[in-house]
Automatic annotation (TrEMBL):
GO terms for molecular function: zinc ion binding. Transmembrane segments: none annotated. This is Zinc finger BED domain-containing protein 4. One of its GO terms (cellular component) is nucleus. Its main location: nucleus. PANTHER family: ZINC FINGER BED DOMAIN-CONTAINING PROTEIN 39, ZINC FINGER BED DOMAIN-CONTAINING PROTEIN 4. Keywords: Metal-binding, Nucleus, Zinc, Zinc-finger.
């Protein structure tokens, strides 16, 4: 980096790591927070949106976004905060995190009163934020996801089979030799997230494609911890035929809502 800077601008010395970390970044953060507070003062009221999601590595985060319309009828959306949530996602913990983020940014109080609209279907969020005076408009996409997940969880045979498929996929992903075997078939098995049935569907589909390429492919793996029978492959095929239309419906609903 220093060589590039000296070549681009002779005589220029880039700041050291300590200067960037201890001085430049804190000052840049203060300037951004000041601009954000000034921007928030231009609206008579705010729409605060909060959401919790989990990354592919299993880390949970709480994000809060503020949206408003200024005096010139221009729309604005700003990120108030994004914080890592550790431990259990209890109602009190979620509420405290949300209050902490809002207090840090000090959003202006709306002049036309306060209305909360709850769109989540998660019990912890509903229990903390929902009261008789609030509006609860359930998100149709999330409600569909929860319904499908609950239906799958009620069948022990399916759950045991999904665990078996997950172990098989992990045995491939963790071994370079096993990965080479599946790469020769032109299929890379997909990992699944336990909280998202759509990712489990993609995992099942990838394993089925491997069996379609070579019915004996799993016998060639090194240190295979799970062996799936052909009868179980047929069960997985039937499960895919049931879940695929629901996945298509979910994608269609997401596109329709994003266009509104």
């Amino acid at each position: 980096m220093q060589h590039f800077a000296s070549a681009a601008q002779p005589g220029y010395a880039p700041p050291c790591y300590n200067t960037v970390w201890d001085t430049l970044m804190p000052h840049a953060l203060e300037e951004m927070e000041a601009k954000l507070r000034d921007l928030l003062q231009n609206g008579d009221g705010l729409v605060l949106s909060a959401d919790i999601w989990t990354s592919r590595r299993g880390h949970s985060f709480l994000g809060i976004v503020a949206s408003f319309i200024d005096g010139t009828f221009r729309g604005h959306t700003v990120l108030l905060g994004c914080e890592h949530i550790q431990g259990h996602h209890t109602a009190d913990r979620i509420y405290q995190k949300g209050e902490h983020e809002e207090e840090d940014e000090e959003p202006p109080a709306p002049s036309q009163g306060h209305v909360e609209v709850i769109t989540t279907n998660v019990d912890t969020m509903i229990n903390q934020y929902f009261t008789v005076s609030n509006l609860h408009l359930r998100c149709p996409i999330h409600m569909l996801q929860l319904a499908i997940k609950d239906a799958v969880n009620e069948h022990d045979n399916i759950n045991r089979l999904l665990v078996k498929v997950g172990k098989l996929v992990k045995s491939v992903r963790k071994s370079t030799l096993n990965t080479e075997e599946t790469d020769q078939l032109g299929v890379r098995p997909t990992n699944a997230c336990a909280t998202r049935w759509s990712s489990q569907l993609r995992m099942i589909q990838s394993v089925i494609r491997l069996f379609q390429k070579d019915p004996l492919w799993q016998n060639k793996l090194k240190s295979n911890v799970a062996n799936i029978t052909l009868n179980q492959v047929r069960q997985l095929t039937h499960l895919v035929s049931v879940l695929t239309p629901l996945a298509d419906l979910t994608e269609k609903m997401q596109k329709e809502l994003s266009q509104k």
